[in-house]
Amino acid sequence: xxxxxxxxxxxxxxxxxxxxxxxxxxxxLFEGDMGAGKTTFIKVICEALGVDDLVSSPxxxxxxxxxxxxxxxYHFDFYRIKDLQEAYDIGYEEYxxxxxxxxxxxxxxIALLIPEHHVKVxxxxxxxxQRLISLSKI
Length: 138
Prior knowledge:
The protein is an alpha/beta fold. It has helices spanning 11-22, 38-48, 84-89, 92-96, and strands spanning 2-5, 27-31, 63-68, 71-77, 101-105, 119-125, 131-137. Strand 3 (63-68) and strand 4 form a beta hairpin. It is globular and about 40 Å long. The two termini are 13 Å apart. 32% of the residues are buried. The model has no long low-confidence stretch (mean pLDDT 93).
């Protein structure tokens, strides 16, 4: 499924479409170049799920936890991870297999640890404000 984004106003609709597409899936992998808008899209998704907290990139902490209307959301940023041991050290399994939503930026850094079933969210920059968001279930 592809979603064309022409401005930031389109992100709310895209978040709703993603959540509908995902159905019961809880693991989301966000891929795209630096600056493509992964964190920005995650903020809008969290808003759509009823998160009242400030949503920010967990660049240095690796994981942030938010409370949504229907449970917890774990937001990961593995950009600065040096090796898989760091993911083991934070207890990734407890998060990934908790049954709560996991929104994962830079999943390629921990590719061997990704659960078998997930939703891949690929964000491609197509213009100054334009993005193409491609969704697939794996």
